[in-house]
Amino acid sequence: MAIHKLKFFACRESRYLAEKIAKSFGSELGDSTVLEFSDGEFQPAYNESIRGCTVFIVQSTFPPADNLMELLLMIDAAHRASAHRVIAVMPYFGWARQDRKDRPRVSIGAKLVANLLRAAGVDRIMTMDLHADQIQGFFDIPVDHLYASGIFVPYMKGLQMENLSIAAPDMGGAKRANAYSQHLNAPMIISHKQREKPNVVGQMTAIGDISDRNIIIVDDMIDTAGTITKAADMFMERGARSVRAAVTHPLLSGPAYDRINKSALSEVIVTDTIPLKQSEDLSKFTVLTVADIFSDVIERVHNYKEISSRFIF
């Protein structure tokens, strides 16, 4: 089977991660630029030939919406430049919280994004820790859904903590927490929260043994940090030894950094799918890179190898 030449490119907001992925692969980023107009419109362009190549474009689609639009334009430009295949590497898949019609007269944003990506001409998607697994079914093309557990679990084992418990910040995260607890042979705690409105947590309770435990809260994303910090404070009030959080996508909007620094959390372990704000106090944060995971899977996909062995859960 003929193997087409591989080239890496990056959109602007994920260039820092794309450089790590390319370096891990033993390559470097291709040459691309973005022409900006005074009204805010922009036009990406490839400054080298990609005819007949397999093109990997790295971009996490966190806000603002320009990040998604830039990815769509890069995909479209690659096809118009006669690329053989265009693969979108989306470490963070934005709009994933809109995966169903949970109230009347709302859109299903994740499905709309899937349609936009397909209309732009993408041939394959690579992403990590989707907010909802069923989003894979929104695509009629292959979706490689990777898991940050491949780097979180070894780090957690390296902490060598006694009386370890894994906690879910809400009922929706119970499946993820259960997978971690089984892999680490640690008991699970489930938090139950009642939201007053989006991004505002009301009452919170917990199911499981908390007293004298070292607790790690696991989740796929952290936005305003209201849920995780409230859970951490509750655990410490109920006698926990320590509370950490391991979260894949650090959106960290609004008062998130301030809440974390004022909370009972002793450490927040995140990945580099989304960059942290260097202007903030990051003393509680530990950042683990996902570059090696994506690099390895890219090599396997490009050379038509199996990738299932790369998944822990």
Based on Cα principal axes, name the global outline.
Answer: globular
CATH domain topology of the largest domain:
Rossmann fold
For the sheet with most strands, the description reads: 7 strands, mixed
Strand proportion: 25-35%
Number of strands: 14
Low-confidence stretches: none
Indicate the CATH architecture of the largest domain: 3-Layer(aba) Sandwich
Pick out its properties.
313 residues; alpha/beta; Rossmann fold; 2 domains; 7-stranded mixed beta sheet; 5-stranded parallel beta sheet
Structure in words:
Residues 6-121 form the Ribose-phosphate pyrophosphokinase N-terminal domain. Its EC number is 2.7.6.1. InterPro entries: PRib_PP_synth_CS (IPR000842), Pribosyltran_N (IPR029099), PRTase-like (IPR029057), PRTase_dom (IPR000836), Rib-P_diPkinase (IPR005946). The chain is of the alpha/beta class and 313 residues long. It folds into two domains: 6-147 and 291-310, Rossmann fold (3-Layer(aba) Sandwich); 149-288, 3-Layer(aba) Sandwich (Rossmann fold), CATH 3.40.50. Helices cover 29% and strands 27% of the residues. The chain has eight helices and 14 strands. Strands 10-9-8-11-12-13-14 form a seven-stranded mixed sheet, with helices on both faces. It has a five-stranded parallel sheet with strand order 1-4-5-6-7, with helices on both faces. Helix 1 (15-25) packs across helix 8 (291-302). The longest helix is centred in the N-terminal third of the chain and has 15 residues, at 66-80. The protein starts with 5 loop residues before the first strand and ends in an 11-residue tail after the last helix. The mean pLDDT is 94.
